């Protein structure tokens, strides 16, 4: 990794709020100034200021080239992964704290915890061998129950947040320049528990001892650099590692493309998926996260599904809602006063019957994924609108619905026209306070709903 000299560091500090393209053209060539590095740091900091504000506020962080910054996790999604890890391992942490408070010996504490199938003594010896841990009693007590490994380190954003909840965290990455970058940045972030390993993650997995938590973010590009989405086409192929991951860790968190069908992914992992997390931010689905773990009961159990969009969160047992696209069991209310559009994570989950049951709303029609109610619904996980008028696509209804309106926000769900086609047909400009939805109601009627946002 290239270390910034004083001249380059001063240039970055002086110009980091300026346009990078203009700087590239106008910046004076100063002796010892590494301008390409400086421009990367300015561009990286400008992205981090919005995407990773905690990193941006930390002096000393070195950023990678632009494309890596665009592709790395955001602070929100990285923090959410850390939340998953700490929730999964909370029982073990609670046992540690409880026994510590009672004054029982460390040896008794470890034996009493039921989380790993191997004996605590075996885990301790294997962990010491793999990670060369200190032999001090204090180190043994903490690290034996608080080990995590990120097998696909990359730029290290996810690792930096996951590591904060563990006594020792190991980052594994094949590319030397990323390892050097991670070593520098983890030190700048004060993560003394971080250990950087330059090597192949799969080989490391085969040789390492058992840990509490593993994180994997398979590369979604093939050997030609083309984008890929199927799990078996990513590197590494997590399907091939399934059994080894279950042996080496209590839990493995796998980050996958949000384009994947989560039900198929669960089925393909053949009973190993404990939880499914569909993570969106700004109503854009960003990540599909699967938690792998040993089967607790003899009979396979369906995973729990978590739908997240910023501060909107719901979870449910997927076994209870296997017919997410079911429609027709609940008639539309006579008074259709409010319209609700679920957020992106719920759309991805397809748990529309759950939404009906939990929030007392009714699906407007098959595959429309919009809901109506007679009364307002508090805390609906999505957008809500007050319905002002409903009509068909004939000229009389359209004239009544528009009532002189010249602009509107247009969306379509299960409708024969696209939003641009509908806008052109209605001769409306974009924007304004009116929200117009084109959809298909129960009975296969194509309708327009004129609404205002609430």
Task: Describe the structure in your own words.
This protein has 454 residues and is an alpha/beta fold. The chain has 19 helices and 16 strands. The radius of gyration is 26 Å and the shape is flat. The model is unreliable at 95-144 (pLDDT under 50). Helices cover 38% and strands 24% of the residues.
What labels would you give this structure?
454 residues, alpha/beta, nine-stranded mixed β-sheet, seven-stranded mixed β-sheet, 16 strands, flat
- Biggest β-sheet: strands ordered side by side in the sheet: 3-2-1-4-5-7-6-8-9
What number is the mean pLDDT?
Answer: 85
Number of strands: 16
Helicity, as a percent range: 25-40%
Largest sheet: 9 strands, mixed
Radius of gyration: 26 Å
Low-pLDDT sequence parts? 95-144
Annotation field: number of helices: 19
SSE class: alpha/beta
Strand content: 15-25%
Distance between the termini: 51 Å
Q: Given the C-alpha coordinates, what overall shape results?
A: flat
């Amino acid at each position: 990794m290239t270390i910034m000299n004083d001249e380059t560091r001063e240039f970055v500090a002086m110009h980091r709020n300026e346009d990078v393209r203009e700087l590239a053209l106008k910046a004076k060539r100063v002796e010892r100034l590494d301008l390409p590095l400086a421009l990367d740091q300015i561009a990286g900091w400008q992205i981090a200021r919005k995407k990773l504000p905690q990193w941006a506020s930390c002096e000393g962080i070195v950023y990678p080239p632009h494309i890596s910054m665009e592709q790395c996790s955001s602070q929100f999604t990285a923090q959410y992964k850390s939340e998953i890890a700490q929730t999964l391992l909370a029982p073990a942490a609670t046992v540690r704290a409880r026994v510590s408070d009672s004054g029982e010996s460390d040896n008794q504490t470890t034996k009493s915890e039921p989380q790993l199938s191997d004996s605590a003594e075996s885990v301790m010896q294997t962990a010491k061998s793999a990670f060369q841990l200190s032999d001090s009693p204090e180190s043994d007590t903490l690290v034996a129950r608080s080990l995590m490994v990120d097998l696909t380190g990359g730029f290290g954003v996810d690792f930096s947040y996951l590591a904060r909840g563990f006594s020792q965290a190991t980052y594994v990455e094949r590319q030397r320049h990323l390892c050097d970058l991670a070593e520098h940045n983890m030190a700048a972030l004060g993560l003394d528990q971080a250990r950087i390993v330059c090597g192949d993650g799969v080989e490391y997995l085969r040789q390492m001892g058992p840990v509490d938590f593993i994180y994997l973010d398979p590369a979604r590009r093939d050997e030609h650099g083309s984008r890929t989405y199927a799990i078996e086409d990513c590197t590494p192929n997590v399907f091939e590692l399934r059994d080894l991951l279950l042996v080496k860790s209590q839990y493995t968190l796998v980050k996958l493309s949000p384009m994947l069908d989560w039900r198929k992914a669960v089925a393909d992992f053949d009973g190993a998926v404990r939880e499914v997390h569909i993570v969106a931010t700004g109503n854009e689905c960003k990540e599909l996260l699967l938690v792998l773990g040993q089967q607790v009961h003899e009979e396979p159990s369906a995973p729990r599904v978590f739908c997240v969009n910023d501060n909107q969160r719901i979870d449910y047992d997927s076994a209870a809602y296997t017919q997410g696209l079911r429609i027709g069991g609940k008639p539309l209310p006579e008074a259709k006063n409010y319209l609700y559009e679920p957020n992106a994570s719920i759309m991805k989950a397809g748990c529309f019957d759950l939404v009906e049951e939990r929030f007392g709303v009714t699906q407007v029609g098959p595959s429309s994924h919009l809901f109506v109610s007679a009364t307002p619904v508090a805390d609906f996980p999505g957008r809500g609108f007050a319905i002002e008028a409903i009509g068909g696509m004939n000229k009389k209804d359209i004239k009544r619905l528009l009532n002189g309106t010249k602009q509107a926000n247009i969306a379509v769900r299960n409708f024969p026209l696209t939003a641009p086609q509908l806008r052109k047909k209605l001769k409306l400009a974009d924007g304004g306070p009116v929200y117009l939805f084109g959809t298909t109601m129960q009975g296969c009627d194509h309708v327009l709903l004129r609404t205002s946002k609430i």
